[in-house]
Amino acid sequence: xxxxxxCNMALSHIGEGLITSLDDDNETARICNQYYHHARRLVLSQxxxxxxxxxxxxxxxQVETYxxxxxxxYLYPEHAxxxxxxxxDTEIRNGLYTSYSVKDIPNYEVFNLDSSTKAxxxxxxxxxxxxxxxxxxxxxxxxxxxxxxTRFLAASLAQSLVGNMEMYRSQFQIYQGALLEAKNIVSSExxxxxxLPVGYIESRRAT
Length: 207
Hints:
Strand content: 15-25%
Strand order of the largest sheet: 2-3-6-5
Structural class: alpha+beta
Distance between the termini: 60 Å
Number of domains: 2
């Protein structure tokens, strides 16, 4: 699977001719090249795709600029597209953290320290970050992500290449359906511990 293959899938969704390369010297290839990476990053950031998630420690830095009054400042992950959670390291070490067990998002903010440096301000020490990384290798894209990406790209191409708003709406609706299907797939692959009411537990102990 290549980037050209994905663009050709999007083109076929809207009935347009295929390209041999994103470097082709024609309007279709140029527009595909213009939209592909933006579409990929946007679709990645729209959902908690398992293949694109990373959980890792943040790098603590010392700064002289004001960062909202937070006690600690960390470097923003270089290839992050979206942060889901900032996590205290004790949750990681004790095995307490899952993406669905955290009820409250800890307080943090993202700052631009200068024109090229992003940072995260938080009161947590030894913080970890759960985030989506900018994955650009089509060979590791799962089928449902490919469906979502090519449908979103098809919607963009329908608007810019064809100028057909009805086709745009149709493809965008299919894209939204792919996101919903992704959520259903992830939900079916997770096992939640059943939390029984205290009264139920006590009554069972009494019998």
